[in-house]
Amino acid sequence: MKLGIVGLPNVGKSTLFNAITKAGAEVANYPFCTIDPNVGVVAVPDKRLTFLSNLYNAKKIVSATVEFVDIAGLVKGASTGEGLGNQFLAHIRETAAIVHVVRCFENKDITHIMGDVAPLRDIEIIETELILADMDSVSKRIERLQKAVRLSDKKMLFERDLAIKVKEHLDKGRSVRTLNLSDEEKETIKDFFLITAKPVIYACNIEENNLPSMTNKYTELVNETAKKEGTQAISICAKIEAELSELSEKDQEIFLKDLGLQEPGLNRLIKAGYDLLGLATFLTAGQIEVKAWTIKKGVLAPQAAGLIHSDFERGFIRAEVMGFDDLFKLGSQKAVKDAGLLRSEGKEYVVKDGDIIEFRFNV
Fold first, then answer.
1. Are 193 and 93 a contacting pair, CB within 8 Å?
2. What are phi and psi of 344, to 5 degrees?
3. Which pTM was predicted?
4. Torsion of Cα atoms, 243 then 247 then 250 then 253, to 10°
5. Among candidate residues 186, 185, 222, 178, the one with its CA nearest the CA of residue 201
6. 121-167, pLDDT tens digit by residue?
7. Using an 8 Å Cβ cutoff, are 358 and 283 in contact?
């Protein structure tokens, strides 16, 4: 999973990025301090792996990962080259989803590029720039297709008509993710690499005194916007996340308890990303390693096997499956089997989150 972190300058993007990746992106109180997109890969927190590692006496734990890309602060006019412009918009096109960091705190020592804190205005500025960038991209595609299209080429005609449909929607100031599309159109539009087609999570950067309630007058506005768009808004205090990132796991637990929090904001952000993209995790376990594998919800057993190795999918016979909850409750694979909860599943089995699978194959 690859998430692009975007927002206006000085909203806390790079502070948040540093906190969740410990990658050391430069942080300063002025726009454009992040000159190149910073990339950090973090492990997906999953306590199930620790349990499995202890149970199987595994030599290694391999977590699922999330890649975060911190992109320089966008400003009004970015789509036409203002600030650092289009070079950063290109990086957003490569991500699966967007984390839009919105400033929901007041601090006279940290300059707001627009002069005051107004999250809905800030969201609109970013959204407008992304829409304008997509309009330019789609217009160029239409122009190319008009020159190359042949009446006999149904695929190219379909693509051209879809591009025109998308352009008309963008012209109304609406993002592509709000456009109703058929399954065929959704598949075709993937090749357009449109920014506003990507799902969005709003990350409300709040002050420490807003913990543990996670709310203030600004976050309420962003939450309302998120609900209207059918997405999520996550409140997170970048300053606290930065402090947490410097602590040991044990000290983190103590610090979080003192703050009245159950988990770091990173965990909630990753969970929101998984939900947004329709992702799930299956597990493999043995003495060599226990490993988490990220899949799309609805994936069949052979496709899941193919993530491990193409031979597993090509020669798939069956999948030996048990649920993590059953194993955790009963304490051993033998106990799960004796209880009749170790199942043999075939090619039509839909893999579920928390499935522990051993694949049988023959090539």
1. yes
2. -105, 115
3. 0.85
4. 10
5. 222
6. 999 999 998 899 899 999 999 999 988 877 778 889 999 999 999 99
7. no
